Amino acid sequence: MARIIDGNQMNMVGNQVKKFRKAKKMSQQTLSNKLELMGVYVCRGSVSRIEEKSRTVTDIELYALATVLGVTVNELYDTTGFEHFLE
């Protein structure tokens, strides 16, 4: 059986972070700045890598992203392609 961690993707939230950020007409830099105001330091380049799923996301970053984007943590999860793991 394949494991989630065996894939190339480092997180499951990147697509949703990008979708919600763009829906709010927010740049990656603005998102980074708002996270910093919460005491969570994620530079613009790291926001890009999160959205590309090439960087992991800590639980604290996940909570802060949801808060800044005005969504729940669950809404950030994109389970597309992982349906077989959730059965």
Outline of this structure?
The chain is 49% helix and 0% strand.
Provide an overview of this structure:
This protein has 87 residues and is an all-alpha fold. It has one domain (9-69): 434 Repressor (Amino-terminal Domain) (Orthogonal Bundle). It is 49% helix and 0% strand. The protein is built from five helices and no strands. The protein has helices spanning 14-23, 28-37, 44-51, 59-69, 73-76. The two termini are 13 Å apart. The mean pLDDT is 89.
Strand percent estimate: under 5%
Using the coordinates shown, work out and report the CATH topology: 434 Repressor (Amino-terminal Domain)
User: How do the helices and strands follow one another from N- to C-terminus?
Assistant: HHHHH
Radius of gyration, whole Å: 13 Å
CATH class: Mainly Alpha
Structural class: mainly alpha
Mean pLDDT, as a whole number? Answer: 89
Distinct helical segment count:
5
Shape: globular
Please indicate the count of domains.
1
The end-to-end distance, rounded to whole angstroms, is 13 Å
**Largest sheet geometry:** none
Binned, the helix content reads 40-55%
Tell how many strands the DSSP assignment holds: 0
CATH superfamily grouping: lambda repressor-like DNA-binding domains
Q: Flag low-confidence runs.
A: none
CATH architecture annotation:
Orthogonal Bundle
